[in-house]
Write a structure and sequence with these properties.
Number of helices: 21
Strand order of the largest sheet: 6-5-9-3-2-12-15-14
Pfam family, one: Peptidase_M1
Number of strands: 24
Family: Belongs to the peptidase M1 family.
Shape: globular
Protein name: Aminopeptidase O isoform X11
Oligomer: single chain
Distance between the termini: 38 Å
GO molecular function, one term: aminopeptidase activity
Structural class: alpha+beta
Helix content: 25-40%
Strand content: 15-25%
Largest sheet: 8 strands, mixed
InterPro entries: Aminopeptidase_N-like_N_sf (IPR042097), AOPep (IPR033577), ARM-type_fold (IPR016024), M1_LTA-4_hydro/amino_C_sf (IPR038502), Peptidase_M1_C (IPR015211), Peptidase_M1_dom (IPR014782), Peptidase_M4/M1_CTD_sf (IPR027268)
Radius of gyration: 27 Å
């Protein structure tokens, strides 16, 4: 089962056998040790055999067809109830020493490489012979496969949930009086299927069960990409223990988290959106169909703040001097890849004066917003859903907090803090109910590889967004807020369809930002047209300079969403290092949605989008789910040869520039903001051509004030000039105060400086490389 892949080119394997058994809930209990750069502890997994996405079939084609048919047929929930935020903590008797954790947990009995393996020791079976039947069709033991790498697994054991006081009420069968595997599994089956209005009780019993004693070690083995677990004599997934505990520790070089220092020089660690997701943070089921809930208790030195994907605004509980514990939970099932954690010496940033719109507000809907409310039962698996909570649907601005190193306090107060309320309100005005009940925003260290990353209840933002005016910070914030709907509440069932997340967020960021600025319709249209022009230039450049096979938005074509009988699959180009620098899913997805919005008209399109969000929130989708519903809502006279097949052919399954986009851009007239840039470019070319000693009759050029996006375009146009004289570059710098502009503008300025060897501005290049490398990856 050890998959050999070329790490520079190959696909990312997802080996978890989700076709046979699904994790429904994780309970993590972890210690963070900054001295050793290790996170250590345990994770308890609660299982439910089977996979609602997968029909039993003998061929992958049949599996794909059944998955496509079942995409929208989730178990219908009972009326949902919105959870009230609370914090619960658990006691710990572990010790603490300086910057290290409160305790060391289980003693490591592994070899020098820290990779313990009890399979061969306990059973005498060679690790090369672990090709057991992972399903329930043969006579060999059932094999549980979890996605896992860069972890030292110390012990795997079954959890004796029957030992939990009061748990007997979940033992429904009167015939089960003796503690047995069947009794323990029945208890878990009842626990994981509790109705949504009993979510508090469910979380409490998950926590109690996670602390129950073990009742027998399980055999396990690890390879490069997975952890395999089995119980001797257990041949079917339905009989496999439904609650297991894995004791493990991360490795300092593990690729799911980054150990570094923040801008104040203090140590910190955070999940940085690795291509391998969270499998080097905890053993899990990575395929998106394995939607689960989680709760986590994390202990760290008292000087640190723990932030995490969680519905509650956790506060620290002091365990003993110098050590604190933090507890978070989520009740909305999501893929394990969306779990995020950040531990550091963050300070909460608060506005110096209370802003009138800086509080979460609730108000009645006006008649113009009445279509945001769709009466009816949600289509997702059951959980406490905000879309069914009357007060949540009217909440324009959800509660939010901002964290950053103390040294960035001024920048946060000047830029970020005042932007969050209008951006949240704008998003609500476009899409309606916020899927998540609260939001933390963290300014991450300078080595963060992108401008932002959204996870449930938390957004990471780069420090690069805080420089210059509010434009870059506002647009990026809007982009990440949009992911709450597209990417999180509605996820792609096949990760190769990244455009379903990034294309939507890119398209919506312009709409949100225009509303946040309260622009007049004409002004908003001009701004969006200018950004379309910039993205068109970027897409053309990307297509010219990237491999054709990586320009396709739906690379698996008719096999999109297909998995093996066990549920394993691969993510095409998932490990290709070039992928991190590519924007094709953002740009082609954006232009497709822009094309469709123009065809329908904005009012019709966004009305449909609200309906789509209400229909599919809490679910996983494929491209056809969106396109089929869209076409069903388009009047016949506006459809004009649009079909799912044509869109697949022209936009999603071909490389290069889509033909409809070529025609549209060829016929498009430049917007007023773009024409103004062209006029300014012509002025600078004239200035650059003039001799040092000018004739007296020549008049000085008068340059207009430009918006940040206009400045980006201006500098990109000037980059196409073969030569710019030093005095021209000096005049450019002084006219637009380029070192003080946002990171996007300074990026282009640094390119000009390097290209023309303008040594006087090399200090700007040095600063940019030290503080804003993520902008290079973004462009």
């Amino acid at each position: 089962m050890d998959v050999k892949l070329d790490p520079s080119r190959d696909d990312l394997p997802l080996l978890a056998n989700t076709g046979h058994i699904l994790v429904k809930h994780y309970v993590l209990d972890l210690d963070v040790d900054f001295k050793s750069q290790i996170i250590e502890g345990s994770i308890v997994l609660f299982f439910e055999p089977g996979n609602r996405f997968k029909k039993q079939s003998s061929s992958i084609e049949e599996t794909c067809q059944s998955e496509s048919n079942e995409a929208c047929k989730f178990r219908m929930p009972e009326p949902c109830h919105n959870p009230v935020t609370h914090t619960s903590t658990f006691s710990s008797k572990m010790g603490y020493d300086g910057f290290s954790v409160c305790g060391k947990g289980v003693k490591d009995t592994s070899g020098k490489d820290g990779n313990h393996d009890n399979w061969e020791q306990a059973s005498g079976i060679s690790s090369s012979k672990y090709c057991c039947d992972t399903g329930n069709h043969g006579s060999e033991d059932f094999l549980l496969v979890l996605d896992c790498c860069d972890l030292s697994v110390l012990k795997v054991e079954e959890v004796d949930v029957a030992a939990v006081p009061g748990i007997e009420k979940f033992a429904r069968s009167p015939t089960l009086t003796v503690v047995s595997e069947e009794l323990r599994n029945q208890i878990i089956r009842e626990l994981v299927t509790l109705p949504a209005d009993r979510w508090r009780e469910q979380l409490d019993y998950y926590a109690r069960c996670s602390q129950a004693p073990g009742c027998g070690e399980l055999l396990f083995d690890t390879d490069t990409w997975s952890l395999q677990i089995r119980k001797t004599g257990t041949q079917a997934a339905t009989d496999f223990p439904h609650a297991i505990r894995i004791r493990y520790r991360t490795k300092p070089q593990g690729r799911s988290v980054t150990w570094t220092s923040d801008q104040s020089g203090r140590p910190c660690v955070y999940t940085m959106g690795s291509p391998i997701n969270n499998r080097a943070l905890f053993p899990c089921q990575e395929p998106p169909v394995a939607m689960s809930t989680w709760q986590a208790t994390v202990r760290a030195a008292a000087s640190f703040v723990v932030l995490m994907s969680g519905e509650n605004s956790a506060k620290p509980t002091q365990l003993h001097e110098g050590c604190s514990s933090w507890h978070y939970y989520v009740t909305m099932p999501m893929p394990a890849s969306t779990f995020t954690i950040a531990v550091g010496s963050w300070a909460e940033m608060k506005p110096e004066t209370c802003l009138s719109n800086d509080l979460a507000t609730e108000r009645s809907l006006s008649s113009s917003e009445a279509d945001f409310r769709y009466v009816g039962v949600c289509g997702h698996m059951e959980y406490p859903c905000r879309f069914q909570n009357a007060s949540a649907t009217t909440q324009e601005i959800i509660p939010h907090r901002v964290f950053a190193p103390v040294c960035l306090k001024g920048a946060c107060q000047e830029t970020l803090l005042r932007l969050i309320p209008p951006c949240l309100s704008a998003a609500h005005s476009v899409l309606g109910t916020h899927p998540f009940s609260r939001l933390d925003v963290l300014i991450v260290p300078a080595n963060f590889p992108s401008l932002g990353m959204a996870s449930p209840h938390i957004i990471f933002l780069s420090q690069s967004t805080l420089t210059g005016m509010s434009h870059l910070c506002g647009t990026r914030l809007c982009h990440e807020i949009a992911h709450a709907w597209f990417g999180l509440a509605i996820g792609a069932r096949d990760w190769t369809e990244e455009w379903l997340s990034e294309g939507f967020a890119t398209h919506l960021e312009d709409v949100f930002w225009a509303r946040a600025q309260q622009l007049a319709p004409r002004e908003a249209q001009e701004q969006q047209e200018l950004r379309a022009c910039l993205r068109w230039r970027r897409l053309q450049d990307e297509v010219r300079n990237s491999p054709e096979e990586m320009q396709v938005l739906r690379p698996n074509k008719e096999e999109t969403g297909c998995v093996s009988d066990s549920g394993s699959s691969v993510i095409k180009h998932g490990l290709n290092p070039e992928k991190a620098f590519m924007q094709v899913h953002y740009l082609k997805g954006y232009f497709l949605l822009r094309f469709l919005a123009k065809r329908l008209g904005d009012d019709t399109y966004f009305s449909f989008l609200r309906k789509f969000v209400h229909t599919f929130h809490g679910q996983l989708i494929l491209s056809q789910d969106f396109l089929q519903m869209l076409l069903e809502n388009i009047p016949e006279e506006k459809r004009l040869e649009l079909s799912v097949e044509n869109i697949f052919r022209d936009w999603l399954e071909s490389s290069g520039i889509p033909q409809p986009l070529q025609r549209e851009r060829g016929a498009a007239a430049a917007c007023g903001l773009a024409r103004r840039v062209s006029a300014e470019v012509a002025k600078w070319i004239r200035v650059n051509r003039r001799p040092r000693k000018r004739k007296r009759r020549e008049t000085e050029e008068v340059f207009e004030k430009l918006l940040p996006d206009q400045l980006v375009w201006l500098l990109e146009c000037l980059l196409e000039q073969k030569t710019l004289k030093p005095r021209t570059l000096q005049s450019l710098e002084r006219t637009y105060h380029l070192p003080e502009q946002d990171a996007e503008v300074r990026h282009r300025w640094c390119e000009l400086v390097v290209k023309h060897r303008y040594t006087k501005a090399y200090k700007d290049v040095e600063r940019f490389l030290q503080e804003d490398q993520n902008v290079i990856r973004h462009n």
